[in-house]
């Protein structure tokens, strides 16, 4: 049975110790352990080690190494349990050891998915334009359980959702002022849906912001889109060009009356230029 003959502090890591043993064939390096494992198993010179005790010591040392890796990962910012599990898995840590590490992290309060989730929701609410739906997706991707997500989403109150969505909607309308009222409304709804806002919030936004344009504003947008279509179909002439432009403007959500008015004015301009 091997006997510990020497315990030596490692040069590169003062918290790890190299264990040397002799099984009757001469002293040789056997394994290394963390300081906490050394103390826990009271390893010392002259101690006999059987295969079972060595396996137990090495298993606990693997847990300690993985635990230290997790602590290092957590030192930069708060992490979810899922993120820690994924990080350790990428380090090729076995599932049984990951399970023990996660248990210890919870015990020492280095992990708390509820607190992590609440902090994450607040950060996303205050620093991004994401709605609650998008934030929920992010939480799921971080491995947060559904029941926890339901609890922490209380940090994103309905009033704040409406406030942010109205702000986004106002900016979106200004940016897309050259679209027809119909297309602008459709685009705004899709935009807010992609951002993760619920229909109830979007409906309030539609009432709060002015999507419906005055006639002169609508005509200004139509003229802008009409000019683009004129350039697109510049190689066509007469009736064929007119029909292409008319169809294009109708597809873009402008009313037939305004389109006919625009085409009539366009015809008059052509006549004056001849």
Automatic annotation (TrEMBL):
Keywords: Cytoplasm
Gene3D superfamilies hit by this protein: Winged helix-like DNA-binding domain superfamily/Winged helix DNA-binding domain (1.10.10.10)
Membrane-crossing residue ranges in chain numbering: none
Residues in RecX second three-helical domain copies: 112-153
Keyword Thylakoid: no
GO biological process, one term: regulation of DNA repair
GO CC entries: cytoplasm
Presence of keyword Metal-binding: no
Residue stretches making up the RecX first three-helical domain: 66-105
Cellular compartment(s): Cytoplasm
One Pfam family here: RecX_HTH3
Annotated RecX third three-helical domain residues: 160-206, 216-263
Function as written in the Swiss-Prot or TrEMBL entry: Modulates RecA activity.
Similarity comment: Belongs to the RecX family.
HAMAP family: RecX
Protein's UniProt name: Regulatory protein RecX
């Amino acid at each position: 049975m091997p006997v510990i003959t020497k315990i030596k502090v490692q040069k590169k890591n003062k918290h790890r110790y190299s264990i040397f043993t002799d099984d009757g064939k001469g002293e040789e390096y056997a394994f290394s352990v963390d300081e906490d494992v050394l103390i826990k198993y009271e390893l010392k010179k002259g101690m006999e080690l059987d295969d079972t005790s060595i396996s137990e010591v090495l298993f606990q040392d693997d847990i300690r190494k993985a635990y230290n890796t997790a602590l290092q990962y957590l030192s930069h910012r708060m992490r979810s349990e899922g993120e820690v599990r994924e990080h350790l898995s990428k380090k090729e840590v076995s599932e049984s050891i990951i399970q023990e590490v996660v248990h210890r992290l919870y015990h020492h309060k280095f992990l708390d998915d509820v607190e992590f989730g609440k902090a994450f929701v607040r950060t996303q609410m205050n620093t991004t334009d994401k709605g609650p739906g998008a934030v929920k997706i992010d939480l799921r991707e971080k491995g947060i359980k559904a029941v926890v997500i339901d609890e922490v989403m209380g940090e994103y109150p309905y009033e704040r959702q409406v406030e942010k969505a109205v702000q986004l909607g106002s900016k979106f309308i200004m940016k897309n002022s050259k679209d027809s009222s119909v297309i602008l409304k459709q685009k705004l709804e899709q935009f807010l849906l992609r951002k993760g806002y619920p229909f109830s919030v979007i409906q309030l936004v539609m009432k709060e912001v002015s999507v419906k344009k005055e006639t002169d504003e609508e005509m200004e947008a139509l003229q802008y889109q009409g000019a683009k279509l004129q350039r697109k179909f510049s190689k066509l002439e007469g009736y064929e060009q007119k029909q292409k432009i008319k169809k294009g403007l109708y597809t873009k959500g402008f009313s037939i009356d305004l389109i006919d008015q625009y085409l009539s004015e366009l015809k008059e301009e052509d006549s004056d230029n001849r």
